[in-house]
Design goal:
This protein is mainly α and 187 residues long. The protein is built from six helices and no strands. It is rod-shaped.
């Protein structure tokens, strides 16, 4: 039942109660003898129907508001989970960034490539243009040192560059690096 139909029913029942009460009063005044049990039965029957309608109205409201409250709670929980995931991804990104800096100092190319693939996936979920732009310098550093890498590491870099394409929609710096890297590894 829609709200409009419920309001029509509610207003109709109120009008019915007013009409029935006025009829009872009219007949009571119009009758010179005492009120009979039949007339009181009609009056109490009308009142019981109205009370039943009002109780039904309250039950409907409880069910409707329970659904509304459940929907709002689910929305809040979903937003909180989304926020918590975002914060967790930021912390994981910062942790990987720290590890990456250590691997860069040690010039452990394979670990640098692997960790950058993971960082690309994290950055894609974060969709933060500032982080992606700051990340671009790490990719540039890696591309500048390809002469120091063996063939397996070069192959991993090519796969990293393809993975990097996911971030192109968030940063012009990544687009430039991607184009540069594609030209560098054309052969």
């Amino acid at each position: 039942m829609s709200k409009k139909e419920i309001w029509k029913l509610f207003i109709g029942s109120i009008l019915f109660s007013l009409l029935s009460c006025s009829l009872v009063i009219y007949f009571h005044i119009g009758i010179s003898h005492e009120v009979t049990w039949d007339l009181l039965g009609v009056f109490s029957g009308v009142l019981s129907i109205l009370v039943t309608a009002l109780i039904g109205w309250q039950i409907h409201n409880v069910i409707f508001w329970k659904k509304e409250i459940d929907n709002r709670i689910n929305k809040i929980i979903t937003e909180e989970i989304k926020h918590a995931r975002h914060e967790m991804n930021l912390l994981v990104y910062e942790s990987y960034l720290t590890n990456l800096q250590g691997y860069i100092k040690a010039k452990d190319w394979f670990k640098i490539i692997v960790i950058q693939n993971t960082m690309i996936d994290i950055l894609e979920t974060l969709k933060n243009a500032d982080l992606i732009n700051s990340y671009a310098k790490h990719i540039s550093f890696l591309l500048e040192h390809t002469k120091e890498m063996n063939d397996d590491e070069i192959q991993e870099i090519k796969e990293l560059i393809e993975n990097l394409r996911k971030l192109c929609k968030y940063s012009d710096a990544i687009v430039d690096i991607y184009a540069l890297a594609k030209n560098k590894f054309k052969s």
